[in-house]
Amino acid sequence: MKQNIYDNEIFFNGYSKIRENENNANNMFEKPALFSLLPTLNNKTVLDLGCGYGEHCIHFVEEGAKRVVGIDISQKMLAIAKAENAHQNISYLNMPMEDIGELQEHFDIIVSSLAFHYVEDFRALINNIYRLLNDGGVLLFSQEHPFNTCFSDGSRWTTDENGQKLFANISNYSIDGERESTWFVERVKKYHRTFSMIINTLIESGFQIDKLIEPVPTPEILKENPDYKDLLHKPDFLLIKATKGTSRL
Ligand SMILES: C[S@@+](CC[C@H](N)C(=O)[O-])C[C@H]1O[C@@H](n2cnc3c(N)ncnc32)[C@H](O)[C@@H]1O
Q1: What is d(CA 7, CA 135) in angstroms, rounded to the nearest whole number?
Q2: Is 47 in the pocket of ligand 1 (CB under 6 A)?
């Protein structure tokens, strides 16, 4: 079942506070990795699934995209996108990405940043994306790492007597499906998928996998932000770039 948790006032305020901090994990690891995988955008059409504040949409236009469509299930997130990241080449649509099969246009690039883990039916989503892409088009997405999504509540770390994190705990990794956890509010729903499920779904839908990144902090980032050393035990994000191939041998 679709959950629009970003329109929950308490969740929205908590999430906004994290994003206001410049040193958040999105800015430090996820966004640079995502942008490093972007193909040339000049004169291209782009669809951003779960576009949130529209920060990426405006970047795509600045990089030369001729048309960007940003869709999001949350009215609150889109209100910020329209207020802060409006542009004549961008259309923001309030719709769940589960419904993109209804869109009447095709795209060169489909991007999604940290939103796929909110979608239950990954195979249907990927099949829809494949249909919406032009031949040779690129799907680029990030999601919470499967070593994170496998959890519901419970202790994610084994610590020593001083509270120092020693090991990341892994729980129920091999069981795909819904998880509920507490993040600002109780009962936030996300969907866990194993690596093999994610990769095989892409391959079976016709995609060629180009690259994966599991971003970790550079020594320079670690010097300024030593707490991020935990990511060396367990990355928080997974990024995948895949291409809609024209030949299927
Ligand atoms: C972690 S935020 C990321 C926002 C943006 N992509 C970014 O990186 O700044 C996740 C976004 O996905 C949206 N979202 C969650 N489930 C969705 C769904 N089923 N369809 C469309 N958007 C969804 C949320 O409303 C939220 O704006």
Answers
A1: 35
A2: no
Distance 115 CA to ligand 1 centre (A): 5
Q: Which of 84, 93, 112, 118 to mutate to test the pocket of ligand 1 (most atoms within 8 A of CB)?
A: 118
Judge: domain 5-244, CATH 3.40.50.150.
yes
Kindly give the confidence (pLDDT) of every residue in the chain, 249 residues in length, as a single tens digit, with 9 standing for 90 and above: 799 999 999 999 999 999 998 888 888 889 999 999 999 999 999 999 999 999 999 999 999 999 999 999 999 999 999 999 999 999 999 999 999 999 999 999 999 999 999 999 999 999 999 999 999 999 999 999 999 999 876 788 999 999 888 999 998 999 999 999 899 999 999 999 999 999 999 999 999 999 999 999 888 889 988 888 888 999 999 999 999 986 444
In one-letter notation, the amino acid at residue 39 is P
248 alpha carbon to ligand 1 midpoint, in Å? 32
Q: Cα–Cα distance between 150 and 4 in angstroms, integer?
A: 21
Q: Is the CB of 74 under 6 A from ligand 1?
A: yes
CA-derived radius of gyration, the chain: 18
Q: Is the CB of 107 under 6 A from ligand 1?
A: no
Domain boundaries, given as residue ranges, for the chain: 5-244
Contact 54, 92 (CB under 8 A): yes
| pTM exceeds 0.90 for this model | yes
- Which helix (DSSP H) or strand (DSSP E) does residue 23 occupy? none
